[in-house]
Design brief:
Layout: H1 2-47, H2 51-79, H3 81-100, H4 105-133, H5 136-167, H6 171-191, E1 195-196, H7 205-228, H8 233-255, H9 269-286, H10 288-299, H11 304-315, H12 321-328, H13 334-352, H14 362-379, H15 382-388, H16 395-431, H17 439-450, H18 454-460, H19 466-498, E2 517-518
Antiparallel strand pairs: 1-2
């Protein structure tokens, strides 16, 4: 009996270390997204760089993260979840340490892409490994802790980044994430078992390369379009190349014996609705994690620490409301909860559009809280819905597609919104009463102003005062919020249509494929 008790205690201790490792990895991911967003003004002052180069600080990470998730999951299934998790955290931590010493903006952008690759490997393999360690209610509790860790990173990442920038500089952000990544690596090396899928076959490399290529060309086209022009040869060439690669990807997936993306799943209305649900928060919440710090610091004149405090109002509801939404889904239709949350977020976006630059910080708290509360409702149900709308034997692929849609959608949304804000800002400068301003001058200055670089824009437009530039930015930001509110409202209505099946009234977030065999 004592032997059995000791074995049970040792097993529980080992599982606790595995859970701690994956939770630390989950915490690193939002910190790696929100932290550099707060740091962009400080990085711009230190390393300089064009607006396009500065935009890639966030976009390179999200593009690499989203574009590599399905490939990383396939590699984990074939070569072992522990092996891929350890490699992912090693790549992530090494890239973070290198980022802390980056001498130029180009190195920063390249290393951010490498860091995103490490995150993709760690997330896909870590969640799969966790599913093998826990069953039943214990699995539900484990995955809820992962969600809490992710929400904590979103809620307090900007504040932590602001504190570090204020007291030690922007490079400390990457040192902190490197330490957390190394701690996750050590915990996993000690306790994680290496499991794999005995049915796994080779990676769908043609599908992976065409998908990532299409995503990369489209993102690059969006980021450079406000400056080069939407109808320029460069923009049309990039968008055309992305379209060709997307067509090639669809053709490859239809012919592959074991495709990376099973396109037949999209024949299920509920599955298509879940993918829309995965992308919807990107336009109502995720993009604000990047845009608002730039506005607060560059336009409103807040310090990095003050900007981080303001962002807590947007993200703090993530710590509580997703759990409450999960409880409410036992009595109410998940589609109604998700749609209601998105409509609340759309209302918050419209409320925020009335807050012009220069108003009291307290006037911003209400709309930020409303957006955060609204988006927290679908956030707590999305992962469970992702695997409940398909047959259980296809749950693994459904979860992989969902995570790819969510992360890649966030990267694309950020690129689209950045391009729109840049275009609206250039248009606002063109309509302003500024003597002698040319189209090229307005485009160059507008690209910096859209990033919150008010001082740099002022040096490019000496005939404009700071108040006039802030007003032009405020007009552009207001128009952008109208677009985001429209997208969010439309998404809510479509989700009601696609997820109307009564079986979705209650969602079992613990539904996962059968356990694979340890290696």
């Amino acid at each position: 009996m004592d032997t059995n008790h000791r074995m049970q205690t040792a097993s529980a201790s080992r599982r606790a270390f595995v859970l701690a490792a994956v939770c630390l990895a989950a915490l690193c991911m939002p910190l790696s997204f929100t932290g550099p967003a707060i740091a962009i003004p400080a990085i711009a002052a230190d390393l300089r760089g064009t607006p396009l180069a500065l935009a890639w600080i966030t976009n390179a990470f999200m593009l690499s993260f989203g574009g590599c998730l399905m490939v990383a999951g396939a590699l984990a299934d074939r070569y072992g979840r522990k092996r891929v998790f350890l490699l992912g955290m090693a790549v992530f931590s090494a890239a973070a340490l290198a980022l802390a010493a980056a001498p130029a903006i180009l190195w920063l952008d390249v290393l951010r892409a490498v860091q995103g690759l490490g995150c993709a490997m760690a997330l896909s393999s870590g969640l799969a490994a966790l599913a093998q360690e826990f069953d039943g209610p214990a699995r539900a509790r484990a995955f809820s802790l992962i969600g809490t860790a992710f929400g904590t990173g979103l809620a307090f990442g900007p504040f932590l980044a602001g504190t570090l920038i204020t007291h030690t500089g922007w490079r400390a952000i990457f040192i902190v994430t490197a330490v957390a990544g190394l701690a996750a690596l050590l915990a996993a090396a000690r306790a994680m078992r290496d499991t794999r899928d005995p049915q796994a076959q080779g990676v769908d490399w043609p599908g992976a390369l065409t998908f990532t290529g299409a995503l990369s060309l489209f993102t690059y086209g969006l980021l450079q379009a406000p400056h080069k022009g939407w109808g320029s040869a460069a923009s049309l060439g990039l968008f055309g190349g992305a379209a060709l690669l997307l067509a090639a990807f669809i053709r490859v997936e239809r012919r592959a014996a074991r495709p990376m993306l099973d396109l037949t799943l999209f024949r299920l209305p509920a599955f298509a609705g879940v993918q829309l649900l995965a992308a919807a928060p990107a336009f109502s919440f995720v993009v604000l994690l990047v845009l608002l710090p730039a506005r607060f610091i560059g336009i409103e004149g807040y310090s990095a620490l003050e900007a981080g405090r303001m962002m807590i109002a947007l993200s703090a509801p993530m710590l509580v409301l997703p759990v409450l939404a999960g409880l409410a889904a036992q009595r109410l239709a998940a589609a109604h909860i998700c749609a209601s949350g998105l409509l609340l977020a759309a209302g918050g976006l419209l409320w925020l559009s009335t807050c012009a630059p220069g108003q009291s910080p307290t006037s911003l708290l209400g709309p930020l809280l409303l957006i955060g509360c609204g988006i927290s409702l679908p956030w707590g149900l999305m992962d469970g819905l992702a695997i409940s709308v398909v047959p259980v034997e296809r749950a693994g692929m459904a979860a992989g597609i969902f995570n790819t849609t969510r992360v890649a959608g966030e990267g694309l949304a950020l690129a689209i919104v950045s391009a729109l804000l840049g275009t609206f800002t250039v248009a606002a400068l063109g309509h302003a009463d500024l003597a002698g301003i040319g189209a090229e001058q307005a485009a160059h200055a507008g690209s910096f102003l859209a990033l919150g670089e008010l001082r740099h824009a002022a040096t490019l437009l000496p005939q404009a005062g700071a108040a006039e530039l802030a007003q032009a930015y405020g007009t552009a930001f207001c128009h952008l919020l109208y677009v985001l509110a429209s997208i969010t409202t439309t998404s809510a209505l479509l989700i009601l249509v696609f997820l109307r099946h009564p079986a979705l009234a209650a969602t079992d977030s613990t539904t996962l494929p059968a356990c694979d065999t340890p290696s």
